[in-house]
Design brief:
The complex is a heterodimer of chains A (315) and B (139). Chain A has 315 residues and is mostly helical. In chain A, 52% of the residues lie in helices and 0% in strands. Chain A contains 14 helices and no strands. With 139 residues, chain B is an alpha+beta fold. Chain B has 2 domains: 30 residues; 93 residues, PH-domain like, CATH 2.30.29. Chain B contains 3 helices and 7 strands; from the N terminus they run ααβββββββα. Classes of the chains: A mainly alpha (315), B alpha+beta (139).
Chain lengths: 315, 139
């Protein structure tokens, strides 16, 4: 088997997704398991997942092929020839998860990337369909550059893509309220439903935390880990929830908002750029709040040292 | 993956989504949030940071409160209440139909507010008093 022939598991796991969604609905509806579904919300999430798959196929022969070709070209300069083996896949899986951590963290702290990722957080529910509420234009963030170090280290792009696919498949299963806390050692090492519920919370103390894909160790290492507190139930969704179930509006609403903000009259170039690349919630006149500001207002300590650029309002 | 297989996969996905939506509808998961006045007022106060005075105008799935500058709306978005503060500058136009008024809004992520009521003229007058619509023609 060659690295190129490794399958894209997550894109073609629909039978698994549908089976487990039906199981979760059954457990919630007839067995009283914890969790909630709402028809329009779930249908929108599934439509977003279908759009993600469809646009993935549409761009497979152009944009994604070009990105893959670029990574293949870089692979010739790799430090090591790691090849394809169980060890190689295991090592790549761990390092790709580290790359995922930073991809995910940037997706919450840079508005341009958030415009893509906000889609996944736009549901006020947390169930297995939420996992499938995915963006349609993921390549637009440019964060695929985080795969470059893996390729330069010696992992074939085919292996990297396979590991990313496995990572996404794992994450499908943690989008549920039906599972409580796992055994302590699992909670210590892996991203679990409990840890990821926190990540989807809009409660000030839960904002911008638990970015891990598979290994929660990255959050513990980089200071972004927050445990689920049973005394403070998670409120899911966005700080300002969207008021539409229209998949097209869900897919592009934050890009439209960036365009509207950055094209306001009277702003400096720096302010226009900040509307696209500063943390979500940044505004030139302080009329909105970033996650850090919301946390500070709630009397919580800062989670990281970086701050939004301080800029004077336009004249 | 061949074209036929891809097509079959697409049909399977479409059928799966349709089946899940139908199942959720049949098992009562499609019911919208029921809004209580006290809870709606509390949520709006939380959003505006100040007290919300006066009785609300009650429509089928939304409670409207007059604010100093515009109105506060608490409406059902699926099973959850959604709070919005709407000023005159947020409204593109108001369309009246039998038993309902539609406010077309400027927000891309919240493009319209449909208000269903048995008394659309009173609602229009109420919105006019808040500066958001023209007054209804005299009855």
């Amino acid at each position: 088997m060659s690295p190129e022939s490794l399958p894209d598991i997550s894109s073609f796991a629909a039978p698994v997704y549908i089976g487990f969604i039906l199981l979760e609905i059954g457990l919630i509806t007839w067995r009283g398991a914890k969790g909630a579904y709402e028809t329009k919300d779930a249908t929108t999430s599934l439509a977003m997942g279908t759009g993600n798959l469809t646009f993935g196929l549409i761009f497979a022969g152009s944009i994604y092929a070009a990105i893959y070709a670029g990574l293949l070209w870089l692979h010739q300069f790799a430090l090591f020839d790691i090849g394809l083996s169980v060890f190689a896949v295991a090592a790549c899986f761990v390092l790709d998860d580290l790359a995922y951590y930073w991809n995910h963290r940037f997706s919450h702290t840079v508005r341009w990337a958030w415009a893509n990722h906000v889609i996944h957080h736009s549901s006020q529910h947390y169930n297995l369909t939420t996992a499938l509420r995915q963006p349609w234009f993921g390549f637009a963030t440019g964060l695929f550059v985080l795969k470059v170090p893996l390729v330069l280290l010696g992992f074939h792009p085919g292996i990297v893509a396979f590991c990313a696919s496995l990572n996404l498949l794992y994450q499908f299963f943690i989008h549920t309220e039906t599972v409580g806390k796992m055994p302590r050692w699992v909670e210590a090492v892996f991203n679990t439903p409990s840890h990821h519920r926190v990540h989807h919370g809009k409660n000030p103390r839960y904002l911008d935390s638990n970015y891990a894909g598979v290994f929660i160790l990255w959050d513990r290492l980089f200071g972004t880990f927050v445990p689920e507190d049973e005394a403070e139930p998670v409120n899911y969704g966005l700080v300002k929830d969207i008021g539409t179930f229209n998949p097209l509006r869900v897919a592009v609403h934050e890009y439209v908002a960036i365009g509207q903000d950055a094209s306001r009259p009277g702003l400096t170039l720096r302010q226009r750029l900040a509307y696209a690349f500063a943390p979500p919630g940044w505004s030139h006149d302080g009329s909105r709040k970033t996650s850090e500001e919301i946390r500070a207002e709630a009397g919580l300590p800062p989670r990281r040292k970086g701050r939004a650029p301080a800029m004077a309002p336009a004249e | 993956m061949s074209g036929i297989t891809l097509l079959a996969y697409a049909f399977f996905v479409a059928a799966g989504i349709g089946g899940i939506a139908y199942l959720l509808h049949r098992t009562g998961h499609g019911r919208p949030a029921v809004l209580e006045e006290a809870e709606a007022r509390r949520l709006l106060q939380e959003r505006t940071g100040g007290p919300v005075a006066g009785p609300p105008f009650v429509t089928e799935a939304a409670l409207l409160f007059a604010l100093e500058d515009g109105i506060g709306v608490v409406r059902a978005q699926g099973r959850f209440p959604l709070v919005r503060v709407i000023g005159k500058e947020d409204v593109r136009d108001v369309q009246a139909r039998a038993r309902r008024l539609t406010l077309r809004l400027r927000g891309f992520d919240d493009p319209r507010l449909v208000l269903r009521t048995d008394d659309p003229e009173s609602l229009r007058d109420w919105l006019a008093a808040a500066g958001l619509a023209e007054e209804a023609e005299p009855r």
